[in-house]
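ingest -> validate -> predict -> emit
validate: passed (alphabet ok, no gaps, 322 aa)
predict: started
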Amino acid sequence: MLMNIKTLEWSQEAIKFFGFEKVYLPRLVSSSEIYGTLFDGTLKGVPIAGCLGDQQSALVGQKCFEVGEAKSTFGTGCFMLFNTGDKPVESKNGLLTTVAYKFGEVTCYALEGSVAVAGSSINWLRDNMGLIADVTELNELASKVQDTAGVYFVTAFAGLFAPYWRSDARGTICGITHFTKLEHICRATLEAVCYQSRAILEAMNNDSKTPLRTLKVDGGMSNSDLCMQIQADILGIQVDRPQMRETTALGAAIAAGFATGVWKSFDELSNINKDGRVIFESKITQEKRQKMCHGWDQAVKRSFGWANPHTTVATHEELQVI
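emit:
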């Protein structure tokens, strides 16, 4: 918050605004260099050599080093980062502009979008509602039906994050009929994450002017073949899942490895975590995809206004005008 991401220096304007003039701030460093060494214990003398944020580290771990490459981490929430290269792209569509990493003299920027509720919606079905015993049961139930039979579950338990930014939205299940079964609710829970990921991806495509062709995925929910197939269907592009999905840890290792001379170029990483990747291709028609996404958009609109219903909440488009 206090760093100017264009100059990569502390923002004096922000420091003054927050009243931090007398606060001693640390030296800003790159993502990959030797910052010091451990001074005691079993690991005495081992260099401390890499520093990346959680999602930035996953981007590096997925080897998204080219402009237009993106990754999405499916955990408690869902976090998508899109490599925009050596110049920051200011989003016009509700995304965050951030520093992805800096190795040597080169700074890489990214667009970031977050889904507030992803895996935590499964926990809600299990812990709060008692409808399932575990994630395995949810996948088994969801796989018993070909679709949700028109049911949409907007998992806005804490509002909606990017690109909607609606703090007044709340969880909503639309389209229930006499024929709706638990299986449909379970599948709609998986679809909810995938629809929100699509909204973020569309915003990234609009901002970057570089349509994404493949989305690299990791995180706990990516273990579900069904969920990743649904994601490919809803996005209409390839979803690429590595065999080793602890990519955040891998990204930290890569940063440290570059600093200590294990690797000297991105090309040397080409064979790392390469084997065992699974590519999910869309299996539905464009017509069906558009129909499904239209239904989701209608459901999202119905989730608005439940919190503070008498308060007018500015949309992202209105905030842009302001």
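Residues 182-208 form the longest helix (27 residues).
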